[in-house]
Write a structure and sequence with these properties.
single chain; about 220 residues; 10 helices; disordered N terminus
């Protein structure tokens, strides 16, 4: 089998990511200008800009015109996604069914492995979930916080990528199918099960929550 060699811009993108990691930079920290990076990697500025565009598409860097380039929210994320997918009833149903496959197991694992800090973050996240804003901060989203409480970074990356990928579906789901008071009560019941480290109750509550959403979406799809 012949392996496809990566392009120069891909190699430079890898080099920029390695530079960010070695220098211990975090989200929001500035990185050198395109000119400085061109000198560092001994390539032309257009090659650097192509590499930056690759990284920007994945959220690894953020380019702010007039301000510079900064480490983006996707730098630590192992999975990346395309946020520009149209929201349809079918795609919303696909989202809920995908969550049904994995989130009950995540809830059970969170109950077994959570720390007191995780529990405090979950309580805060239940209140964040009550806000009606359309801007998504995946790091504070209830289900992302729940996934991080498992202690498994791959699960956390998976849920965060799913939230980004399905941001439009998530917003329509929340607007058209979620009853805020019931949603909050169900989240609080789930947090209580996780606080008690009751894995089976946490699994059951997460599944029941998502099944009710799935049934509501299916009714609309079938009408």
């Amino acid at each position: 089998m012949t392996l496809k060699l990566s392009s120069l811009s891909e190699q430079i993108a890898d080099g920029i990511v390695e530079m960010i990691a070695l220098e211990g930079k975090e989200e929001g920290d500035p990185i050198p200008s395109a000119r400085a990076l061109a000198e560092r990697f001994r390539v032309t500025p257009p090659t650097i800009r192509e590499a930056q565009r690759r990284l920007e598409a994945m959220g690894i860097v953020v380019l702010r015109h007039g301000s510079g380039t900064f480490v983006g929210p996707g730098f630590q994320r192992g999975l990346v996604a395309n946020p520009h997918v149209a929201a349809t009833t079918r795609s919303i149903l696909d989202l809920v069914e995908a969550r049904l496959v994995i989130e009950p197991t995540i809830a059970a694992a969170a109950a077994r492995n959570r720390t007191e800090e995780d529990l405090a973050l979950l309580v805060t996240a239940t209140e964040n979930a009550r806000s009606v804003g359309t801007t998504l901060d995946v790091t504070k989203h209830f289900h992302a916080v729940l996934a991080r409480a498992t202690g498994n970074p791959v699960l956390a990356d998976t849920i965060e990528a799913m939230l980004v990928f399905n941001d439009r579906q998530r917003r329509v789901l929340r607007q058209d199918f979620v009853v805020p008071a019931s949603d909050h009560a169900e989240h609080m019941s789930l947090v209580a099960a996780i606080a008690a480290q009751d894995a089976e109750s946490a699994r059951f509550l997460a599944e029941a929550h998502l099944r009710s959403l799935r049934d509501a979406v299916m009714r609309q799809l079938e009408s």
